[in-house]
Amino acid sequence: MALTIRAMSSSDRISWEKLYIAYLEFYESEPVASSTELLWSRLTQANPEIQGFVAEDEGVVVGIVHFHFQLSSWTHTWHCYLEDLYVDPDKRSQGVGRSLISAVKSSALQKKCSELFWITLAGNKTARKLYDQIAKASDFVRYEIMLDEFH
User: Fold this and answer.
1) Is 136 helix (H, G, I), strand (E, B) or coil?
2) Does the annotation count 86 as an active-site position?
3) Domains within the chain, CATH numbers bracketed
4) How do residues 75-101 score in pLDDT, each as one tens digit?
5) Across-strand partners of 7?
6) Mean pLDDT (the chain, rounded)
């Protein structure tokens, strides 16, 4: 595998969308065209609100990651939230996910973040096999309230 990790660009739209839709399907979520368009805009505008990388294997996009920075109320630093990570199922267990996380970590260090974090489903055994090797699971439990007026 000739893996390259690079910043997402506008020429990645078709490849990105294919993987992004597969990511949503994995989480049993339906894509919403306007939300997908908004995310793409946020990823590719001149000063992206959400950062994105792609993993390429011999010129073919095989993985994507989205992340963003947030101020911390506990420290004087930023935190980096890795929000979405997806690798083509045929390319899993070949270092693609690890390489994408490493690229996000490098960006977080450049931003002088004190923490890089992400969440996943408890039953996502494939991803957790990797995550347990490179990060520490926290004791925090996530709670959420879906605000219907925004859906």
Assistant:
1) coil
2) no
3) 3-150 (3.40.630.30)
4) 899 999 999 999 999 999 999 999 999
5) 53
6) 94
CB count, 10 Å around CB of 52?
Answer: 24
66, with CB counted inside 10 A (0-12, 13-18, 19+), is buried
Using DSSP bridges, classify how beta strands 51-57 and 3-7 pair: parallel, antiparallel or unpaired: antiparallel
| 82-111 exposure pattern, b = at least 16 Cβ within 10 A, e = fewer | bebbbbbeebbebebbebbbebbbebbeee
Residue whose entry in the numeric block shows the structure tokens 């960006």: 107
Asked whether the beta carbons of 54 and 8 are under 8 A apart, the reply is yes
Which parts of the chain fold into alpha helices (H)? Answer: 13-26, 33-44, 96-110, 125-134
Give the tokens for residue 29: 């979520």
Q: Do the beta carbons of residue 137 and residue 81 sit within 8 Å?
A: no
Query: What are the structure tokens assigned to 8, written together?
Result: 């997402």
List the catalytic residue out of 81, 86, 131, 143.
131
Residue that has been written with the tokens 């890089």 in this structure: 116
